[in-house]
Amino acid sequence: MKIKPQRLLNIVLLALSMVFANWALAAPPTAAASSSKSQKSEKKTQTSKSEKLDVNSASKEELDALPGIGDAYAQKIIDGRPYRSKTDLVSKGVLPSSTYDKIKDQITARRGAKASASESSGATPSEPISSNPPSTAKTSNPTSKSSSEADSGTTQNASQTARIPPEKGMVWVNTSTGVYHREGDRWYGKTKKGKFMSEADAQKAGYRPAKNGPKE
What we know:
The chain is of the alpha/beta class and 216 residues long. The protein has helices at 5-26, 31-50, 60-64, 71-79, 88-91, 97-103, 113-121, 147-152, 199-204, and strands spanning 53-54, 107-108, 171-174, 179-181, 195-197, 208-209.
């Protein structure tokens, strides 16, 4: 059976196209794709190197993953927090120098902003301020008038020497106010203006007894 040349050519072309398709699928990635992957890998490596592990906040698992740091050292690092500097790991006796040298380029010791601000300011808590102000002693106003002074109508000093009545039992009449004071009253014989009278005469004259004075 003879095959026509045109048909034979079509078969050959179809076979070549299938072979080429299979080759394209199995071919290694192009140089551009390979270069892109390489750049991403380098960036990832650089990022991981720049991000150092903070010994003040790292978890126990993260510390355990560091070279030469096992479960015991990881727990010692956590118990020794906080650290002002990563070198405190050696100065505090948390890690031996040989172990520290293995991880010193992979760790850092960051301090919280609040702790740093507090230490830099050196502020100490202020003493509580009492909500109740100190009480002040009440002092009497020496210039204020008592009720008896109001009755007598005078600011005369009560400690001055009283006038002596000519006869016992007489009252002292303040002629300015029309009030009379009996013996024993603080204003008896001491107002600026006044005179001694018997109580009966004082009442007849229309004078009234002092409100705060002694009773009969």
